Amino acid sequence: MKCGIVIPAAGRGRRMGANVNKQFIPLDGKPILIHTLEKFSRLPWVDEIVIVSHPDEITIMEQLVQQYGIQRVKAIVPGGKERQDSIYNGLTFLETEYVMVHDGARPFVKQTHLEQLWQTVQKIGAVALGVPVKDTIKIVDQDGFIQSTPDRKSLWAIQTPQAFRLSILRMAYEEAKKDRFLGTDDSSLVERLGMKVMVVEGDYHNIKITTPEDLILAESILKHWSEEV
Ligand SMILES: Nc1ccn([C@@H]2O[C@H](COP(=O)(O)OP(=O)(O)OP(=O)(O)O)[C@@H](O)[C@H]2O)c(=O)n1
Ligand SMILES: C[C@](O)(CO)[C@H](O)COP(=O)(O)O
Questions:
Q1: CA pair distance 138, 149, nearest whole angstrom
Q2: How many Å lie between the centroid of ligand 1 and the Cα of residue 14?
Q3: Strands (E), 30-90
Q4: Which residues are listed under the site Positions MEP for the nucleophilic attack (predicted)?
Q5: What is the assigned CATH class of domain 3-224?
Q6: Is the model's pLDDT at 226 over the cut of 80?
Q7: What is the end-to-end Cα distance of the chain in Å, rounded?
Q8: Does ipTM exceed 0.95?
Q9: Domain residue spans in the chain?
Q10: Strand partners, 207
């Protein structure tokens, strides 16, 4: 059994406010995206990697992949307006039985968690990495008033990778496209088909680098947990 990896990296990084795609920002001298790609490129069960890039950055991506010797990159393909559009396009280039979708902006996913996801997706067919939330979460209305407080015991902050049997994810993406449904992750597209998605507990290092504060946290993670991430 082999797995294909789709790395959505075609965003504009608006919340980062940098004048460059946040995935090219260096961490310990290496672009964030390369840290991410290195987590997958040597795994024995990874058959092919598809990187989804902003159309204007495909050449840069090709140069980085070559410069850092990233293995198993099958294609670097153009993304779309939304993350969902980018992944939809990336999926069309895969020929594996399983797929793992992982944000290019999450450089610290652990190998142990990737292995757990790989074992689980072969049994369950749909799985996502996540962590229990630490804050109390509130549902707030458009006027800024709290409507409800969900029981924190049942709340998880879902990350990536999210892994699926490829046929399941393709069907979910087609249904979402037909229904014009836009989700913020891949699992929500599978859930809306009425299918169960399992959560594997990861850890709090697996941050998505989104705003400037995350760069400070990322440097600290790399400095204090470099052997683990
Ligand atoms: N149209 C898009 C939007 C996002 N992504 C990717 O999806 C991942 C998670 O998205 P996010 O962190 O929101 O990145 P951006 O969309 O770039 O950030 P922002 O919303 O701040 O612009 C990132 O690796 C990003 O590059 C993508 O491939 N295509
Ligand atoms: C997919 C994701 O990383 C799960 O937490 C998150 O939903 C991506 O959100 P973004 O706004 O596209 O970064």
A1: 5
A2: 9
A3: 30-31, 46-53, 73-78
A4: 152, 208
A5: alpha beta
A6: no
A7: 26
A8: yes
A9: 3-224
A10: none
